[in-house]
Amino acid sequence: MNSAYHYDIHFPVNMDPDKQYPTVFTLHGRGSDEKNMFGLVESLADEFIIVGIRGNLTLGAGFQYYELKSLGNPIREMFDRTIQQLEEFIQYATEKYPIDAAKRYLLGFSQGAILSMTLALTMGDELKGIVALNGYVPSFVQLEYALKSVENVSVFVSHGEFDSVFPVRIGHETANYFRNLTSHLIFNIYPTDHGVSEDNQRDFVNWLHQDAGLLSL
């Protein structure tokens, strides 16, 4: 199987060749790239494999995973194909590298958060958990996709109180949606615009450690 995506992969420095590792797959926002995402999770690199997935469409100096008809309105055919390709990529990477399939996490910002939440709904407990930063679940996903149970999926959702791209009410709506689907939900609001504060980063890094059964930083 070939990868549909360019990606960066970081292994723990003192990796045990006989061990499988919890893994975080990162998904960036529109116009960004996988290297920007690594800074958010670099402190996890001693205990997790980190796989940064680059969107395969250019946007300015950066990249995206799919295009939009308008803000908050993905081109459906491109979005559907992206979800399929990302599921295939996660399987590809799991077979290729010493990834613990029972401890696979997605961490996405903005467009990457939208994809992370959708993949949780299409993959169910094939994922251990997701971190979704400043995103939402498209209505067509909620209404038309074949969704799997996420009752056993750990979900960390956060949103900027002053988000000028996706207003904070969208964060509350997203949290309410997942609150009805899983008891393993953390939802936090941070006093930021469309970005990730140091407090937000610290909280999801500690959450990932705890959820994966590792000591907190």
UniProtKB/TrEMBL annotation:
Keyword Hydrolase attributed: yes
Domain Phospholipase/carboxylesterase/thioesterase: 16-201
InterPro entries per the UniProt record, alphabetical: AB_hydrolase_fold, LYPA1-2/EST-like, PLipase/COase/thioEstase
Domain of life (superkingdom): Bacteria
A Pfam family assignment: Abhydrolase_2
Record keywords, A-Z: Hydrolase
Residues of the signal peptide: none
Molecular-function GO terms, alphabetical: hydrolase activity
Protein family per UniProt: Belongs to the AB hydrolase superfamily. AB hydrolase 2 family.
PANTHER family: LYSOPHOSPHOLIPASE-LIKE PROTEIN 1, LYSOPHOSPHOLIPASE-RELATED
Protein name, UniProt field: Alpha/beta hydrolase-fold protein
